Amino acid sequence: MIHFEDVSKVYENDGKELRAVDHVDLRIEKGEIFGVIGFSGAGKSTLIRLVNLIEAPSDGKVLVDGRNLAALPKPELRKVRRKIGMIFQHFNLLESKTVYQNVAFPLSLAKVPKKEIEARVTEILEFVGLEDKAKQYPDQLSGGQKQRVGIARALTTSPEILLCDEATSALDPQTTKSILDLLKRVRDQYNITILMITHEMQVIKEVCDKVAVMENGKVIEQGTIFDVFSNPEHPTTKNFVRTVMQDDIPASILKQVEGRAGGRHVYRVTFLRETAGEPILSKTAKNFDVDVNVLYGQITELQGVPFGNLIVELQGEDAEILRAIHFIQSSVAVKEVVADAG
Ligand SMILES: Nc1ncnc2c1ncn2[C@@H]1O[C@H](COP(=O)(O)OP(=O)(O)OP(=O)(O)O)[C@@H](O)[C@H]1O
Asked: Which part of the chain is the ABC transporter domain (predicted)?
């Protein structure tokens, strides 16, 4: 649906070249919710603006539904752009217009007959849960309600793509969740492809199917949420994942283990996908002469699939512990067992 093929965007700043987007390749398929994460200055905003040609690429091609926007004649470009909606961090609503007028605005501009506008706006306001706010003005709304108006306005022209530029960054966590739920419904009900940029990993974890991590204009890692979160490779990705999935051993627990006599055997056991529900540790305790002590861990859900990360201590004779570890490692249920200490 949206393909970046070796795309770069170079700005001139005081005679110096700045590569805001640097040789990026991305494929965002129809109906996907695709997240791009990166720190400030990574190039996310530039990247998203290349999709509707607010910015033109310096090199490479951005294809939307197979068409290179930069090569289209103006009337064609206008048509394609109408199929791309956008929502913003600060909502960008017209303060002097009511909710109804804001949502109707793109249709009024396109000179759609009044009756049609009414039917469409009513349907969309109902969809975003604002049917009772039609006559209110933006300054009478909460942040979450304002973003619902922004989403409604983007949807009135029946877009195929929705671009979200830090759409929840100005909202509290609870409101963020409700807006993300709404975006999921937008995709599910209208099969709209959603490209969102954010600096919050929680947002990516909550709603995206795939993620690309940007740094200095480059995509440094990309993949499904499950793969990237369960096995991040680049240090920056690891840092982002750490913001939502704590997997370090807390200092207090390490101290407690270190204080014990007779050495320590602490391992990280990572459960993936279908193995997350396996009673592998209780089997280990039953089949081997070892005690299994779960020190710390969490089971979370990534795209509806359980993912677990446990820190366990095995107590017993060294040889027996080795056999137990071998059993855990060889089991299809466990991806890796890493000695953290000992
Ligand atoms: N119009 C422009 N002219 C010159 N330089 C620009 C322009 N737009 C962006 N840049 C530069 O390109 C780099 C990437 O900026 P961009 O806004 O795309 O990053 P970002 O990841 O979206 O950051 P933020 O989250 O802070 O918006 C930055 O160094 C920025 O200063």
From this structure: 2-241
Q: Return the C-alpha torsion angle 248, 249, 255, 258, nearest 10.
A: -110
Ligand 1 centroid distance, CA of 240 (Å): 20
Residue 307 alpha carbon to ligand 1 centre in Å = 35
Rounded percentage of the chain residues whose pLDDT exceeds 90: 67
Domain range enclosing 53: 2-242
44 Cβ below 6 A of ligand 1: yes
For the chain, how many structural domains are there in total? Answer: 2
Q: What is the pTM of this model?
A: 0.86
Do 283 and 210 sit in the same domain of this protein? no
Centroid of ligand 1 to alpha carbon of 204 (angstroms): 21
User: Does this complex have an ipTM over 0.90?
Assistant: yes
pLDDT lower than 50: segments of the chain: 332-342
Q: What is the CATH number of the domain that holds 294?
A: 3.30.70.260
